[in-house]
Amino acid sequence: MKLATEQSMSSAEMSAAAFEDIEGGINFSSIGKALLRKWWLIAGVMVLTTTSAGVKVLSGTAVYTAGFEILVQPRSTESDIISDVPDTLATRPTEFLSTDLLKLLTSPKALQPVIDGIRDRYPSYCPPLRSTANQNYDPCYNRIASRLSVAPIAKGSDIVKVSFRSPDPRTVQVVLELVSEAYLDYSLKSKQAEVSLGMDFVNKKLPDLRGRVDSLAEELQSLRLEYNLIDPSSRGSQLTGQAGNFAQQQLEVRSQIAQSVSAYNELTRQLANPRAQGSTSILGQNPRYQSVLNNLLALDSEIAEASTLYLEASPEMAVLLEERENLLALLEQQGLQTQQELQTQIQELIDRDEAIEQTLGGINDGIDELSGISRDYTDIERELQIATNNLSQFLSKREALQIESAQNQVPWEIVTPPTRPRSQPESLNQNLILGALFGMLLGVAAALLLDRVTGVIYGDAEIRKATRLPILARIPVNRILSGSEVQESVSESLQYVGANIRGGASTTTASAVGSAVNSASSEYSESTGYNNGRQKSYQSDPFSEAFRLLFTNLRLLDTENEVKSVVVTSVMPEEGKSTVSIYLAETAAAMGQRVLLVDADLRNPSIHQYLELPNEVGLTNLCAGDSNPAIIQELSAEPNMYVLCSGSIPVEPARLLSSRSMAQVTDGFRSTFDLIIFDTPPLLGQSDAYLASNHADGMLLVTHPGKLRQPLLDRAMEQLRIADINVLGVVSRED
């Protein structure tokens, strides 16, 4: 389907469309309008439910109510011990009282003793179950549970308020007595079950705990024996002290090595220059070396004295020199011997340092090994302590559970005994208010459901969403057309509209009909605020302005290809298509266009009736070849407006509209008239409008919100899509 461009829509209209057509959102405006339309239904349902609530209260019998208070889950030392035992029923969440327990107290399991007691005392109230009855359904339980109320007296309190209501006060008293006994018995059995589960759990865990303690003790003892440990900390202190002592010895030895090496180097230098040796030399500490050195010095003095007496070659000098050489050789021998002794000393010190280094390395390795052993020892010792503590706790818990098991004290306690049953009449005002609220909700639901089931379209937003077409104009109510004489109203209204469009409202015709539309115009001006001050000059008839806007939008749809012919139709009958055709033609004529209005509704023609024109000849005659120019009639009230009535109704209107002669006739109109308007039958049920669209530039769809139904509109739009009709836009009529 070819849709007209939405450029003709005003910015305000587009904004409204964007706001109303948000997918996935809730259109509260549409809901409000639907409720206003169905106010009578909502009011009727409210009156009905309110009346029913009042009648129920006034005609109802007295209801007796009584109750008692019971303390549930009282705490004791034994209970605290039991609650610490994991994986038992004693471990409960803090909100247990407000959820699971309250549901359990009204369960069939808890109320079964009550039901049995009622059956024994009042067989008529709780008849015995038949063998063929459903064992999973007990009507007596439903009767009692529906009237039994169990709730804590305050949030977080362990005191529960239990109440029962019934028309029979004796039944109330008996049921409450049975319920209190059942709850006390239930608490005792629950306590015994919890203690039994706790005992089973403790007895099951004790062998594992003992085995764990024994295993850890054996592992700790094996570690002590393997590494000869009594206390890892004392052994570590001992090794640390030994390491410190050997480290100190190593420092002293290395200091002696440094001193000996220094002395050795000094001795080597002295041996290279024996005459430069001093008393501070390392050789000065060698007596043999010093004795030879002293002899050599004395001999040198003697040689010096003899050199003054003897020649160097004399026998006396030769003996002295030979003795000197012997002393030098002996001195060198003593120096080398001292050097050898010093070297030996240095090697001994180095060997001792290596021995200390090896011993110290072994001690450090022992310290490192002891560190890992100490961690293992500490871990095992800690695990042993934990296991021992757990074993002690479980032994204490078993003892406490044994004590608890030997006691038959009921854990729960009745704080307040069952009270005397008292009548509680229902509040009339409260029931009336509740009935009104329920009726309002029910009425709203019924109104929305009815509005959706009927599928009636009430707003332009729904039309725009269903058609995806621009709304070219909204036609308001014409007060003149609402009169009793339709023909006279249309005739008068046409004259007024034409005069209003041309700006000649002061003419005689306009003056004659001005009073007829005065109320509509004044009402419109009051609603829009155009009746005060300088804005009075902008007052105009909204009906005329709507058609002026429609004609303008048609002209602006496509500036390149002017719309010169248009088919006006609707989805259903009685939506105002003929009215729109007539007034659109009048508006265009009043604005200087030469207009031809063609009554193409060959099944139910009505244009001649509205305009009071003869219908002996018309479109059917032109298509049959009649060339009488009098067939096209000119309106006396509007010189530029011409009307082609339908003429005699043909046997097959669709065949006539699709004929070649129809095409030739319409082609001839294009050269004579500026605008051709075809009034055609509705879309559903006939093909006339589709066939007539082949002779026009586009189609104008007239809708009437409040009468048009959604399924019919969807079907029509689907047919237009299949037929590929160029739909220019939508005209919406207001009620």
Overview features:
14 strands; 735 residues; single chain; Rossmann fold; 5-stranded antiparallel β-sheet; 59% helix; 9-stranded mixed β-sheet; alpha/beta
Can you describe this structure?
- The protein is α/β, with parallel strands linked by helices and 735 residues long.
- Among the domains are: 232-406; 460-476 and 543-733, Rossmann fold (3-Layer(aba) Sandwich).
- Helix content is 59%, strand content 10%.
- It contains 23 helices and 14 strands.
- Strands 1, 7, 8, 9, 10, 11, 12, 13 and 14 form a nine-stranded mixed β-sheet that branches. Strands 2, 3, 4, 5 and 6 form a five-stranded antiparallel β-sheet that branches.
- Helix 23 (710-723) links the parallel strand 13 (698-703) and strand 14 (726-733).
- Helix 8 (169-227) packs antiparallel against helix 11 (315-406).
- The longest helix is centred in the middle third of the chain and has 92 residues, at 315-406.
- It is elongated and about 190 Å long.
- Residues 3-25, 75-79, 86-96, 482-488 and 504-539 have low confidence and may be disordered.
CATH topology descriptor of the domain at 460-476 and 543-733: Rossmann fold
Average pLDDT figure: 75
Give the beta-strand count: 14
Any low-confidence stretches, pLDDT <50, length ≥5? 3-25, 75-79, 86-96, 482-488, 504-539
Strand count, sense and barrel status of the largest sheet are: 9 strands, mixed
Shape: elongated
CATH architecture identity of the domain at 460-476 and 543-733: 3-Layer(aba) Sandwich
Identify the CATH class of the domain at 460-476 and 543-733.
Alpha Beta
CA distance, first residue to last residue: 29 Å
CATH homologous superfamily caption of the domain at 460-476 and 543-733 = P-loop containing nucleotide triphosphate hydrolases
The helicity comes to 55-70%
Q: How many alpha or pi helices?
A: 23
Beta-strand percentage?
5-15%
Which structural category fits the helices and strands?
A: alpha/beta
Rg from C-alpha positions? 62 Å
